[in-house]
Amino acid sequence: MNAHPEAGPASRREEVRLPELPSVSRLLVHAATTAARERLSGTSRPAALPAVRHTVDSVRVELERLTRFQHLVGGTVRDSLPSAFLHTVTFPVAMSVLTRADFPLPLPGLVQLANHVRQYRAVHFAEPLTLSAWVENLRGHYAGTRLDVRTEVLADGEAVWQGTSEYLAKGVFRPGLDTGARPAREDFTPPAPTARWRLGVDAGREYAMVSGDFNPIHLSTVSARLLGMKRSIAHGMYLASRVLAGIEAVAGDEHEWNIRFAAPVYLPAALALRIEDESRNEHWVASSFTAWGEHSRRLHFSGSVRTL
Amino acid sequence: MTATPESPTPKSAPQPAPAAETRPVRSAVVIGGNRIPFARAHGAYAGASNQDMLTAALDGLVARFGLQDERIGEVAAGAVLKHSRDFNLTREAVLGSALSPETPVYDLQQACATGLETVIGLANKIKLGQIDSAIAGGVDSTSDAPIAVSEGLRSVLLELGRARSPKQKLAALARLRPKDLAPEAPSTAEPRTGLSMGEHQALTTAAWKITREAQDELALASHANLAAAYGRGFFDDLITPYRGLVKDGNLRPDTSLEKLAKLQPVFGKTLGEEATMTAGNSTPLTDGASAVLLGSEDFARRNDLPMLARVVDAEAAAVDFVHGKEGLLMAPAYAVPRLLERNGLRLSDFDFVEIHEAFAGTVLCHLAAWESEEFCRNKLGLDSPLGSVDRARLNVTGSSLAAGHPFAATGGRIVATVAKLLHEQAAAEGRRGRGLVSVCAAGGQGVAAILEAC
Asked: Any CB–CB contact under 8 A between B324 and chain A?
């Protein structure tokens, strides 16, 4: 269990130990003022990703926030941490990397394209956790520039959870990165649904309260409009957490999951979903999921959960 | 106090009663039933509570069978939509009824199968000799449904209760938001899917390719059969009028296929396929209560009471509907074959088949499944289809589409009806017929039972 193939050549990275979990809202404000200052002064950002790995030790989960998270996403209040919750736990560390002065892309406008998570064992809420984050794989995209944000959770010196979030800096093009052609949009015909979600206009605010992700595009129509969105949008991780909560009963604690976001979910929203289980010898091995607009019939996200 | 082989027994002591393990299993019989007419929601019973209606059904039963001040072995009933103050709903109803206050009682809840399950549980106690008589029942009101405060307000109120200092109390109150003040009415949506029962059935109806016409025909038959049964006085000794209602408020004796065909679909409108489920071929929300008197044969003879039918056997099933592996209301399609297998019976061995009409589509999907070689082989593990149900034996005095469906009261309505039908047939033809009862329930559950004429 010590060497996971995806752990990456961390040795080439400079280890940065943070004394405590940083405050996400402070990081967001800092990022916004840096971006504004850069626009005024005309300074440009470096071309490469910073070769650093930020780590915080001995992090303990706040039990009340865990309970609120579990209830909000429709999960069961258990003593083990949902793998989507562990993503929110690592989020401030990831943000501390993305808001560094030498991070090459402006934080406002970063769009989440996909997530991939592996969880190797159940994590009890009382376990002290070591959280790490780094960025890698800067590459082109037809609409801008992409990168992977990697996060890792260690307990007792052992990696128990690893996440990769693929982000897109829309409209930011870097010389030398192959953008590729825009792929033809795939036709999507909704299958028979197995569930329906009604997301209220406050779904973004409620998830911000339990996840700590107070990005203004999620909080209200007004704050989203200030950032150029027509309305506020649901957090991608809220959608992932909620779909995972509906599968956790069969999936257990050792599993990997991925989600790919096709279109933002503007709030309020009525989504239709299909979750389909796959079993082998009468045992669950995987569930795949797809979500689309109940009325627009437009694909919003899809993914799967699989036993390790 | 059980005697062990070691304990010396004085020769002069009376012989102890046989131990429970060696007591023979005896019959449990349906003696009769009583219900109040089922009323459409927010109609005749709008001001009556679950407890009021259940008491009315019990008092009607007491009057019919002369049970005033009788201590019944046990009464079991329940409601699906239940206020938390009604934790002892059935006990309170019994205390308010003409039954002896020394009658023990328990509440039961199995969604729409509540009423049938109370019959099964109490019949089993009678069969084991634990009790000699019983009343099974159920009640539901959508007009007087409990309304809950929102999760936000509830959490603030609970926090307020835990707060000790004024500062803590203020902090709790500060969490209150205007939207928290909106009340929450109970919904028929499945908690794990967010789909209402009708939407779930619409998916199953579409998967089985059940046509709009077939559903409307079943609805029409339900109304025609119920109207005919009223016409011949079938319900005279099964119903006690209440609040001015003498017949089920939902019954439309003059409905027709043309009228039913005019109704707009209400479920499955976003399926992409043609929506087929209307207010006419779906059961309306209703208020009502029912009760069934059960006893041992000895109890019935001793009290000079009729014996209509024996409760032979029962089976419950549940399906995995959450990720769409099976339709929400299809569990009885699994319970019935298991029940038939255990009793060595075929569908054609039944003179009366009662399949609760949650929706016309539900009944038709069950019938289609039992006729499907693929379903019976892959889902039931059978070599050949289970078989067809002769429509002339199906829901012959109408079912929930016409009568309405006050969730927990439906089981009692059906059991009393089948028992009386079997008794009538036995009296007319001199043979012991069989009846099959099947009820689907929320949460992907279903219960089936076999009755046999006495």
From this structure: yes
Check if B154 contacts A (Cβ < 8 Å). no
Structural domain of A114? 14-307
Task: Answer yes or no: is A8 within a domain.
Answer: no
**How far apart are the CA of B377 and the nearest CA of chain A, in angstroms?**
17
Distance from CA of B194 to the nearest CA of A (A): 5
Tell me whether residues B194 and A295 touch, CB distance under 8 A. no
Residue of chain B whose Cα is closest to the Cα of A290: B323
- DSSP annotation of B55 reads H
Compare CB distances from B270 to A198, A246, A272 and report the shortest one's residue.
A272
Alpha carbons A248 and A75: distance in angstroms, whole number:
8
CA-nearest of B155, B447, B169, B211 to B329 is: B447
Q: Would you call B207 an interface residue with chain A, using a CB distance cutoff of 8 Å?
A: yes
Q: Do B325 and A198 touch (CB under 8 A)?
A: no
Active site residues of B: 112, 405, 440
CA distance B189 to B332: 20
Domain count of chain A? Answer: 1
Residue A1 in any domain: the answer is: no
Secondary structure tally for chain B: helices H, strands E: 14, 12
- Is there a contact between A274 and B206 if contact means CB atoms under 8 Å apart? no
Q: At what angle do helices A83-98 and A24-41 cross, to 10 degrees?
A: 30
Contact yes or no for B324 and A276 at CB 8 A: yes
CA B367 – CA B347 distance, rounded (Å): 11
Predicted confidence pLDDT, tens digits, chain B (454 residues): 444 444 444 444 545 566 777 788 999 999 999 999 999 999 999 989 999 999 999 999 999 999 999 999 999 999 999 988 999 999 999 999 999 999 999 999 999 999 999 999 999 999 999 999 999 999 999 887 777 777 778 888 888 888 888 888 888 888 888 777 776 766 778 999 999 999 999 999 999 999 999 999 999 999 999 999 999 999 999 999 999 999 999 999 999 999 999 999 999 887 766 899 999 999 998 999 999 999 999 999 999 999 999 999 999 999 999 999 999 999 999 999 999 999 999 999 999 999 999 999 999 999 999 999 999 999 999 999 999 999 999 999 999 999 999 999 999 999 999 999 999 999 999 999 999 999 999 999 999 999 999 9
Is the Cβ pair B324, A190 closer than 8 Å?
A: no
Taking an 8 Å cut-off on Cβ atoms, the answer to whether A277 and B199 are in contact is no
Closest CA to B240 of B447, B34, B6: B34
In a domain, A152, yes or no: yes
Among A240, A8, A238, A1, residue whose Cα is nearest residue A121: A1
Which residues, in sequence order, are bridge partners of residue B435? B352, B451
> Is A210 part of a structural domain of the chain?
yes
Q: Which CATH number covers residue A91?
A: 3.10.129.10
Contacts of A277 in chain B (CB under 8 A): 323, 325
- Cβ distance A294 to B271 less than 8 Å, yes or no, reads no
Q: Pick the residue from chain B with its C-alpha nearest to A277.
A: B323
Q: How many CB pairs under 8 A join A and B?
A: 42
For testing the chain B interface, which of A64, A68, A70, A196 should be mutated: the one with the most B CBs within 10 Å? A196
Q: Provide, as residue numbers in chain A, all residues whose Cβ is less than 8 Å from the Cβ of B199.
A: 196
